[in-house]
Amino acid sequence: MIRGENINLRHIRPDEIELFIQNTNDLDIRGNHLNGMLKNPAQIRKGFMETGFATEDWSVFLIVDKFDKPLGGISYFTVGPYAPIREFGYSLWDKEQRGKGYMTEAVKMLSDYLFLNSTLNRIEIKMSVENRPSEKVAINAGFTKEGISREVIFNNGKYDDLFNYALLRKEWLEMRKR
């Protein structure tokens, strides 16, 4: 478990896989900024049984409050085979908990964990240019805007542009000194 000030990050337990599937496939929770295609529940269960959603290249964590109540999820995954880079994806399931800084804390916690325990030099976050709350998370977590990728994600019948944000190891080290 990764412990934070207001939240903790931990792996999903077998008894929580149905909750994870339910929230992953709830289009209202996913919002208008992610691809709307639902994930196959059988494939999700199979992936969990095979790996527990934790490998060297990708991992899924629950974001839980101090009473261990699941609030959402955060994951990292390999961007490509050419460089040691991970990208984050995240979602708070309970809309009442949004805007309280939990996701910024989760991003900072997972960034700390990866930079302290791996040789990664770069972490990326990408979001629809219309997803201002996610952009705010990236900014508040110390990520730098690097540009826009045009028409990358298909959602609601159209292609959306994505903002590209990144945090380099040297930037993370500088933030830790403050």
TrEMBL record:
Classification via Gene3D superfamilies: 3.40.630.30
Cellular component annotations (GO), alphabetically ordered: cytoplasm
Superkingdom: Bacteria
Ranges for domain N-acetyltransferase: 7-178
Pfam annotation, one family: Acetyltransf_3
InterPro entries in the cross-refs: Acyl_CoA_acyltransferase (IPR016181), GNAT_dom (IPR000182), Ribosomal_N-acetyltransferase (IPR051908)
Name the record gives this protein: RimJ/RimL family protein N-acetyltransferase
Taxonomic lineage from the root: Bacteria, Pseudomonadati, Bacteroidota, Cytophagia, Cytophagales
